[in-house]
Specification:
Layout lengths: L7 E6 L5 H10 L3 E5 L7 H9 L4 E4 L2 E2 L5 H14 L4 E6 L3 H4 L6 H14 L7 E3 L4 H10 L2 E2 L6 H11 L4 E2 L2 E6 L3 H13 L6 H9 L4 H6 L2 H7 E4 L1 H13 L5 E5 L8 H10 L4
Parallel strand pairs: 1-2, 1-11, 2-3, 3-5, 4-5, 5-6, 7-8, 9-10, 9-11
Helix pairs in contact: 1-2, 1-13, 3-5, 7-12, 8-11, 12-13
Length: about 280
């Protein structure tokens, strides 16, 4: 049975997650939390979040396959899925060549081999998703997993991804948001997050160039590219961008709320939940 992640969730770095926030997220009506930042393979944080909540689905966004052996990921998956059936989704991905050096030369084949190992260790296809941006990885996601979890994308990419995946597979893009009606302030929050490291990483650059941005846009982190990648405005405006992904074919959208340094994300999550009709 496939894990039902619902329509709207949140994406947050593991360092910014704890059971208290998970309880708030569930009460606000979000259906899933995606643990970002390449969490360690023991996935104890996922268990803590599941234990604190009643219905929330927890997904990894993503386990980095260079850092976590497939056997370790599989053992953690089976432990958690047994204790919390239908509430955990194992998101995996290849990461970035800049962080993986010479080993990255055959990324597609490496992902295929990792999926083969997950098969051998009993992780079901419906219990895992693949980080995917380009057409080849998206097709692999459709063939070997429950679907795709694209990161740092636009509704235009979501539309293309749905065409490649077909109607059935999960398509769960991440969308960065800043709740502020001051564009300059919003960009001051968004630009540092997007510019470094993401606009320096070849896989994201390649995907954004495919979507029509220029090298100059990416090198300068232009307003055009920041506004395309980070929705900002009042809650209704931000919610409308999230819904654009749904209209373009997303099954689920996970919002990554960006705030000032160390600011509590809960107020923004509450506003956004209201605009999305969750509360």
């Amino acid at each position: 049975m496939a894990v039902d992640v619902g329509r709207f969730g949140i994406w947050r770095h593991a360092d910014g997650l704890d059971p208290e926030l998970a309880v708030q997220v569930e009460r606000l009506g979000y259906s899933a939390i995606w643990i970002g930042g390449s969490p360690p393979g023991d996935l104890r944080l996922a268990e803590d979040l599941l234990e604190a909540t009643d219905r929330l689905v927890i997904a990894t966004g993503i386990i980095n396959i260079w850092q976590v052996p497939a056997a370790e990921a599989a053992a953690s998956y089976k432990r958690i899925a047994t204790e919390y059936p239908d509430r955990f989704l194992l998101g995996i991905g290849i990461g970035h060549p800049e962080a993986s050096g010479e080993r990255y030369r055959r990324p597609y084949e490496t992902v295929v081999a990792y999926l083969d190992e997950l098969d051998a260790h009993g992780v079901p296809v419906e219990g895992r998703v693949l980080a995917a941006l380009g057409p080849r990885m998206l097709r692999l996601a459709a063939e070997r997993t429950a679907g795709a979890h694209p990161y740092l994308t636009t509704p235009a990419h979501t539309r293309e991804a749905r065409e490649i995946l077909g109607e059935g597979p999960l398509l769960a893009p991440e969308q960065k948001v800043v709740l502020s009606t001051d564009p300059e302030y919003a960009r001051s929050i968004a630009r540092p997050v997007v510019q470094r490291p993401y606009l320096q990483l070849v896989n994201y650059r390649r995907n954004l160039l495919r979507l029509g941005f220029t090298e100059a846009d990416l090198d300068s982190a232009s307003d055009a590219v920041i506004d395309a990648l980070v929705a900002h405005g009042d809650a209704a405006t931000v919610a409308a961008r999230i819904v654009e992904h749904v209209d373009a074919g997303a099954s689920h959208v996970c919002a990554q709320v960006l705030t000032g340094t160390d600011a509590d994300p809960a107020p923004a999550l509450r506003e956004l939940a209201g605009a999305l009709g969750l509360t």
